[in-house]
Fold this protein.
Amino acid sequence: MADLTAAQGFQPRIGACPACDAAPLAQRLADQAKAAAAHILILSLPNAHCALCITQVESALLAQPGVRSARVNLTLRRVTVEAPGLQAADLIPVLARAGHVAHELDPDALSSTAADRAGQDLLMRIGVAGFAMMNIMILSVAVWSGAEAATRDLFHWISGAIALPTVAFAGQPFFASAWASLKAWRLGMDVPISLALILASAISVFETTQSGHHAYFDAAVMLCFFLLIGRYLDHRTRAIARSAAAELTALEVPRATLLSGIVEKTVPVAELRPGDTIRVRPGGRIPADGIIVDGTSEIDRAMLTGETLPVAAAPGLALSAGEVNLTGPLVLRVTAAGRDSSLSRLASLVEAAENARGRYTSLAERAARAYSPAVHLLALTSFAGWFWTSGDLRLALNFAAAVLIITCPCALGLAVPAVATAASGRLFRRGLLIKEGTALERLAEVDTVVFDKTGTLTLGQPRLMDATVIPADLRPLTRALAEGSSHPLSLALAEALADTPPAVLEDLREQPGQGVTARWQAHRVSLGRSDALHQDDTPTLSSWLSVEGRVALRLDFIDRLRPGAEECVARLLANGLWVILLSGDRAAPVAALARQLGIQDWRAAVTPVAKAEAVAALADAGYKVLMVGDGLNDTAALARAHASISPASALDAARVASDMVLTGQDLSPVADALAVSRLATRRIRQNFAISIGYNVIAVPIALLGLATPLIAALAMSASSITVTLNALRLGGGSR
Amino acid sequence: MEILAILIPVSLGLGGAGLGAFLWALRNRQFEDPKGGGERVLSDQWDDKPRPERD
């Protein structure tokens, strides 16, 4: 692809202009840069935090042969390594030896350059507007303090010479967006802004040519400056969230092991085609939908259905992408990959649900809808009124411009972004990432919280309930048996018996789907399921330990609670929210968990569609639902809910569908998020009230024709600063 | 009032210099890693000379 474009760049063409020839050249250079970028590895360093970390990481990497350069970005907690021929897997152990955890990031998924450029562009416009504002203010202060005649005219001319190019350059984002909304026959917030900018500049130029007393160059530039700051804050909040979300996606570099003949090859999942044969090792995630052709194992379907118990898998069974292979290696024939897989098919369900939610209008939009017509009407009234009473066109235009400038939503433009920046910054420090702009406002309205069980309230990792049921003499043997398998129950058992030295076993064999068997001191011993002998339908997760000549022992496991789950549910209940538990798992474990957490309303064995329907039914009944879930079975419900949160361990699809992502393991930020969102919405309303309050005082002054550029400048900066300070009160508190 | 003919260009020039410095910093990606920049000061490596850039 890159080669093709580069080759096109070399085609000789007859240049109509030098710039046209330069364009393909630039394209070629960009492609060369991209090719060089292929050597670049990006690793995430979640624990880097200080100067020492920078030095350790960089020197450890640079000491590695083949590494050309390594540069840590502490703000993003990433290191960019230029190392041709090296893989991330070569460098991660190097960093581990230096004491740093590192994960590979997919550089393609981190293509935030466009957003970066937009942010830089806004910053540059802010810089220019700020420079112009300072210089014009110096001149304006002289005019306000009584510069007369020729001096005043000179100052006005200089101000104009600075202000006109500045407004033309720095105002472009507003003009573009106003034009776009006018073309769609709407009156956005940017229409009165653009009108005020243009009218103020035009009137001021006219007044200056007539050696008039008042010119509004300072007001026009100040307007640009404050509104651009609001725009930038808005952009930055979104860009941070987007890049962090991209980082979560980039953490999973999906690969599959393709079998062609006898050769095994690791390929990206995107390259899989139906009919391919792939191998899935024990512990690996199924990369694509397929049918088992060889091997037996057990399959963890928790992500898809919420069941905690693994399912036995044998040739002929159809598997879906996203399931986890537990005990034995499997060979699959791919039936659907990528966009056609069941993972992606759910996306259509998600889209339909999201449309239902997309109709939400934010507070800012509602304010703009009421505000823009009112402003235009006021300006028009003042123009008509003054023209009718005085008959002086110049005077009437002057006063109308003053009204437009004074009512211009300077503080209004800052009111929402400043609060959103402060609130999302505070939540980010607590471990919650906000992906959607209106998520905070929607979250504030929530009165019902629906939780998923497996992977959300619990970690989906079993824990041995009671280790004392195993007699002391059998413990070494049990640990040795447990270590013979990578089944989650075996792992939990081995962890519970970590203090016991393992016994020596002979002939240790794992039968996928059945368990582990071995010989110990001439006895046959086994650990695993025992449907053959003991027909058990106990509600809990359990495994059987049998030793020849002794009674078989039942070992019970429970799913581990996510840290902070109890606290989170308790706080939600204390705040008077209705908490519901919907799980795809069987009734007994769901009931046990609900009892443990004090949740009154629960439903078990809920299918994915039923989950979404339950959420929709609640919404139709007038409840505002917050959905917290992680699995594929929650995806549609997450998209349908009024607001949604998923943990970082969730499937890609679930994270995409939800508004907010928990970055850590702890669940307690969910309760914080509700509190902060309510506070944020209150601050936004306060900010609206403040800016309207300023207008209530200033508009009559402007209507009466008493507004001078000094009053306009005072009202504008005072209201903007008050609003920003009010928003900043939100950011502090919990550090 | 002749002083204005000197003072105004001087003030504009100073402001312009500030703007130029800001735009230079922006173009040179000085705002890319503000936290790292603050911490790197504390590191004793590359103290005697600027770190060679290999871009």
Notes: Chain A touches chain B at residues 50-52, 54-55, 59, 68-69, 72-76, 82, 120, 123-124, 127-128, 131, 134-135, 138-139, 151, 154, 158, 162 (CB under 8 Å). Residues 669-703 of chain A form the longest helix (35 residues). The mean pLDDT of chain A is 78.
